[in-house]
Design goal:
The protein is mostly beta strands and 61 residues long. The chain has one domain (9-58). The protein has one helix and five strands; from the N terminus they run βββαββ. Strands 4-3-2-1-5 form a five-stranded antiparallel sheet, with no helix packed on it. A hairpin with a 3-residue loop joins β1 (9-12) and β2 (16-23). The radius of gyration is 11 Å and the shape is globular. InterPro entries: DUF2187.
Length: 61
């Protein structure tokens, strides 16, 4: 299992996407405001996602 790094964009929970802001031992903290439909979802700006529950879409450059 590849662990995301700060700056990576990940996908989780069937289509939610966010940019990794912090990497912890078992999870990452993700900023969800990059999604175009973020305001319509009425969610918190950040969330925690376990390493087992996401896939990396883009690597930081």
């Amino acid at each position: 299992m590849k662990i995301a790094e700060v700056g990576n964009i990940i996908e989780f929970k069937e289509g939610l996407q966010g940019i990794v802001e912090k990497v912890n031992e078992n999870s990452v903290i993700v900023d969800l405001t990059i999604m175009e439909n973020f305001n319509a979802l009425e969610m918190e700006e950040k969330t925690v996602v376990n390493h087992k529950r996401y896939k990396i879409l883009t690597n930081k450059e």
